[in-house]
Amino acid sequence: MSAAAVALGSGVPAAARTGGDRVPPDPFRLGVASGDPEPTSVVLWTRLAPDALAPDGHGGMPGRAVDVHYEVAEDERFSRVVRRGRAVATAELAHSVHPEVEGLRPGREYFYRFRAGGEISPAGRTRTAPGPRERVDRLSFATASCQAWYHGHFTAYRHLAEEDLDLVFFLGDYIYEYAINSGNLWRHGVELGPAHDATVRTLEQYRLRYSLFKTDPHLRRAHARAPWVSTWDDHEVQNNYADAHSQYGISIEDFERQRAVAYRAYYENMPLRRSSIPDGPDMRLYRRLAWGRLADVHVLDTRQYRDDFPEDSGAGGEHTDPDRSILGERQERWLTEGLRRSGATWNVLAQQVVMAQIDRDTGPGRTFSMDQWDGFTANRDRLFDAVRRFGIDNLVVLTGDIHRHVAAELKADFTDPDSATIGTELVASSVGSDGDGAPTDRYTELWLSNPHVRFYDGRRGYVLATMTPERLTSEFKVVDHVERDDTAAVSTVARFVTEAGRPGLKREA
């Protein structure tokens, strides 16, 4: 691992030659962020980019390394600073820094900011997790996913940033790799140059795509308002990829090279700890966080280790093969062991693709999506067996991917509507992907014909949830339009309660 990479993980390398504090004006155009809170630490993030949309992907920064100073305070005015430090932003990792601030107090709100040269960043708000044995009265979080900048304004983030949140879970498709042109640029009032009119494949292109999406002020504000816990899906690399397999006929060797640069750009642009520094085409993203005794959160990666797509999507096809896995053997063992050891009231899986069985044939036949957990039924069965075996009474699965709001009950046997409900799945719609959307669309009947699906809405938005020792309250938030401007109001179109010890969804008015 390079010295620059170590610097980004730990704050300051053992030895680094830098250009000191000299930076171009206004280097914090991509904002600030924090993530993955632990009881006594949190990771902070920024990336220096005074010319964020420079076509070479370097953000207008020179090739030399730059000192970036940070401070963490107990108040917004920074009159009670509790930690200061220095990180080194290098060209090798796009002048991003990821200092892990230690020695903080559990369950506390903090404020942070960066300085490079004479430039001061906007301030961010973060918080640490409660202590591991602490009884916690409440966890407030939101889930978001699928933010195609070119399909609409990030109006959902404008409203999400106004919520009183402890955490934001981002569940995949932070960027999209498609070329942006007049055919798909639905966000009114913007213009783009030719640098964006190409499918993203190189490191420079991935860096530029993150910069473009982060130009949205509402996304930057949402990052600055609360710590994020992030995972990816497919579009951070390429649509519907499976491990080292591309659906576009790219050789494994060439696709692994593409995956390596995509993973590197992902790390450069997200508030992730040093444990996630990529090693070529490999990056450890699955991890576990605890929120006192209230919740254990298992962050999953259903993309990097999955088996390739089967050829038959019917009821008895290859997708039922007992050797197939969407998680990979090592991650499966890790998840099973985490469930076995958990003593928390709630177990949360923060992941990407729909876990509930969804029969996509509204007639007498049965057809399933091979990109979702339906393509890996044995893996799902093993997970559900572990949930029952270890007495996990309160399983909550957080999902993105499909650009629609869905609330579903997870059944011990999906072929029997009367079988036991063993968990709850909350699927967040997209922030921008697919434009405005509508309350009902051509998929409404398909989803609601599955009896364990309790709710469906096709508009843009996010899920707001409040978790207590007694119940989980989930609210599905939508905005009516995102294409023409970012002025749409937010509304709650459905509210559900899941009582502790009684898995399932009870709809409230």
Task: Outline the structure in words.
This protein has a seven-stranded mixed β-sheet with strand order 12-11-10-20-21-22-23. It has a seven-stranded mixed β-sheet with strand order 13-14-15-16-18-17-19. Strands 3, 4, 7, 8 and 9 form a five-stranded antiparallel β-sheet that branches. It is globular. It is α+β, with helices and mostly antiparallel strands and 509 residues long. Helix 3 runs parallel beside helix 5. The protein contains eight helices and 23 strands.
Radius of gyration: 22 Å
Distance between the amino and carboxyl termini: 54 Å
Structural class: alpha+beta
Task: Tell me the total number of β-strands.
Answer: 23
The quaternary structure here is single chain
Shape: globular
Strand content: 25-35%
The low-confidence parts are 1-17
Main sheet attributes: strand count, strand direction, barrel closure: 7 strands, mixed
Total DSSP helices: 8
Question: In order across it, which strands form the biggest sheet?
Answer: 12-11-10-20-21-22-23
Helix content: 10-25%
Compute the average pLDDT.
94
Question: What's the topology here?
Answer:
Elements: H1 3-10, E1 32-38, E2 41-47, E3 66-73, E4 81-89, E5 96-97, E6 100-101, E7 109-116, E8 119-120, E9 124-127, E10 139-144, H2 155-160, E11 167-170, H3 203-214, H4 217-225, E12 228-230, H5 252-269, E13 287-291, E14 295-299, H6 329-341, E15 346-350, H7 377-389, E16 395-399, E17 405-411, E18 421-427, H8 444-448, E19 453-457, E20 460-467, E21 471-479, E22 490-499, E23 502-508
Parallel strand pairs: 10-11, 11-12, 14-15, 15-16, 16-18
Antiparallel strand pairs: 1-2, 2-5, 2-6, 3-4, 3-7, 7-8, 7-9, 10-20, 13-14, 17-18, 17-19, 20-21, 21-22, 22-23
Helix pairs in contact: 3-5, 6-7
